[in-house]
Amino acid sequence: MPLVDAAAARAAALRAAALRGELAAHDRAYYVLDAPTVPDAEYDRLFRELQALERDYPELATPDSPTQRVGGRPLPEFAPVVHAQPMLSIQTETDTEASGAANFDARIRRELELPDSALPVEYAAELKFDGLAVSLRYEHGILVRGATRGDGSTGEDVTQNLRTLRQIPLRLHGAAPAVLEVRGEVYMRRDDLARYNAAAAARGEKTLVNPRNAAAGSIRQLDPAIAAARPLCFFAYGVGAVEGWEWPKTHAAVLDALAAFGLPVCAERAVVRGAEELADFHRRVAALREQLPFDIDGVVYKVNSLALQARLGFRSREPRWAVAHKYPPQEALTVVEAIDIQVGRTGALTPVARLQPVFVGGVTVTNATLHNADEVARKGGICVGDTVSVRRAGDVIPEVVAVVAERRPANAVAFVMPDACPVCGAHVVREPGEAVTRCSGGFSCRAQRIQAILHFASRRMMDIDGLGERYVERLVEFDYVHGVADLYRLTLADLLEMKRRADERDGVVPETVKAGQVATRWAENLLAAIAASRRPRLARLLFALGIRHVGESTAKTLADWLGSVERVRRAPAPLLAVLPDIGATVASAIADFFAEERNARALDDLLCPEVGVVPADEHPPHPALAERLAWEQLYVALDIPRLTPLRARQLAALVDGTTLAASGVDTARLSAAALPGEVIDALVAWLAQPGKRGLLAALARQRDDLLAAVPLASPTAADAAPLAGKTCVLTGTLPTLTRDQAKVLIEAAGGKVSGSVSKKTDYVVAGEEAGSKLDKARELGVAVLDEAALLQLLNSQGVADEKS
Ligand code: IVH
């Protein structure tokens, strides 16, 4: 070889070695340490440089080169690999309780012939990963072969595929032994699986059923390009054959050494002593299971001392020194027997899979939501008859993860979203960009009515105890209740008649009826619970109305800041948008809700004297509301084109909304004040749009009304409250309020509720069967109120304050 070429080749070899080292370091930072060190583009540049060098000097393409991770040819078949040391399996403790740990510890102590007085045994405790076991053979630090477990003695050579895993180092760090076989698990993270499946379904390809099948299926692909396209990960958990290595003394130290070689070792491990601590680990990991990004099916305990491991030895293919302590399964296969459509409160059509009962996540699952049409498609299209994997983790509702495509029967029926509501027959709509399909029937759809009433009555809203699905369905079905207000018009006779009709229809004859009696207790209780809900807190009432985007916290904001139903329902969207945490979307959803004729009527009905629902804690607006109603903020909330916050402030300094609505834009004055021409033009154009001037005028009016109602700053809101500083004592049974409700009302009005009557008591609120407390009050000359008087006191003073 001419001299120059030889020099060039030497330089190329040096550069290639440097690039390999650098790329390996970046790989480790990115894939093992999760802390990327260079931008992707820089990595790609280095990678391409190395590829080019290896193309020019093929002898430089060493097996540990990062370029060798991809690009292998498909194999005709996998070559068998005889493991230098067999890959063992592991004994399973199926007792998923703490006793499982105790069993193992007791067995170890027995086999080691330890007396009861001996110290607790030390264990390495780790996770049991749910993937595919593999063995990686490193010779002098270079990955030379990767194999599956196979039957434990002979596996398959899957080197090409394992190379594609970026987490697996192609060269070990530091001083590597002559031979080191690393044992570990290939797995797929749940989020990676979901992402992969979504993309695969979009391409019309098969989806992966679960992380374990994903790992196994990907590694056992003859074409390494397929494995390369799958987001696989790896954890090392042990070693096989080793040459030229000074063994550490414990298993935990072996894992530390593997981590130091640059292999990924799961951080979720511990060294513990004795049965109790094993059980603690099992419990702790169980609580962590949901948060882990990957699946585990248990934990593994290993006697930590390698010397003791050697003493314990093996039984057939299982070491005596290790055990897998399982958890109940979170995922299982079952068959979809039917797909029903449920219609929700907002009319959303939700497909629900009816499943062959399957035990998963600690319960028997028979239904799983399929969410919407997009989700069904994302899971590869779900048919009636399909075998699917179902997951239930923690308290999360059961979910269909994927379809087992291989098991689809010939007569499988594909799911299609219906084009009419299955309950009321109204046509369905799917807004562009929305995943949900909705019934257009609104409140005339029985399903929506039932759901709206259930929502209204639920615990966190009006809290009508006992008004469950069964009663609501019947009340709606037999036409006793059209809207929520009708609940308050129900009589005992109505309920008994409803029950009789339902029994008749269902062909049941209750025992009481057979005995010639009528059971009325349930109906009385239900009526009492309905009556007791007549005085809800304002926030709960607003939440109960079922306004889109208004949850508990938004309802509370509305209640705290505006203080009354009337003020909330009259507020135009821009006014709502200046309240804390209420954005433009939520603000318009609220305004739209109240603008809708049907909703307005339902609310009027609810608040009418005959029905008598009255929020218990209406009060003047929040004292700080005045600041939020500054025109500069309202102008921004109006979303006028080109009116940036800065321009809005300038505009507000020049003209308020009332004047603007009344007299229009004074162009000369605004431009004299240096407001840019295009801002003025945009304002003029905006105001000329239909409805805008009216909107501005309405906003100005509402603003004035609100400002007039805001309490003056000086007496604090608490002082101004009707019962500020007053002590009340409750006694006897009040006609509609429970004791707790009365207490809430009194406290909301600034008062205190005390248990005993004294000279310091301001009011005794007495109901039926009031006893000694009432006598005491009379004796001391303390004012006595009945419920009506209490409510009047709360209201009259509240209103008086509002006007002040
Ligand atoms: S040690 C000592 N440790 O469980 C016996 N195995 O039958 C060698 N597995 O599929 C296995 N996590 O891949 C060990 N932390 C862990 C493990 C683990 C998962 C798998 C292993 C094999 C099965 C054992």
What does this structure look like?
This protein is 42% helix and 17% strand. It has a 5-stranded mixed beta sheet with strand order 2-13-10-3-9. The protein is globular and about 105 Å long. With 804 residues, it is α+β, with helices and mostly antiparallel strands. It contains 33 helices and 26 strands. The longest helix is centred in the N-terminal third of the chain and has 30 residues, at 3-32. A hairpin with a 2-residue loop joins strand 15 (349-360) and strand 16 (363-369). Residues 798-804 have low confidence and may be disordered. Residues 88-90, 126-129, 133, 185, 237-238, 300, 319, 322 line the site of 2-(butylsulfanyl)adenosine.
Which terms would index this structure?
single chain, 804 residues, alpha+beta, 5-stranded mixed sheet, 5-stranded antiparallel sheet, 33 helices, binds 2-(butylsulfanyl)adenosine
Q: How would a crystallographer describe the biggest sheet?
A: 5 strands, mixed
Neighbour order of strands in the largest sheet? 2-13-10-3-9
Task: Report the count of strand segments.
Answer: 26
Residue fraction in strands: 15-25%
Radius of gyration: 36 Å
The stretches of 5 or more residues where confidence is low (pLDDT under 50) are: 798-804
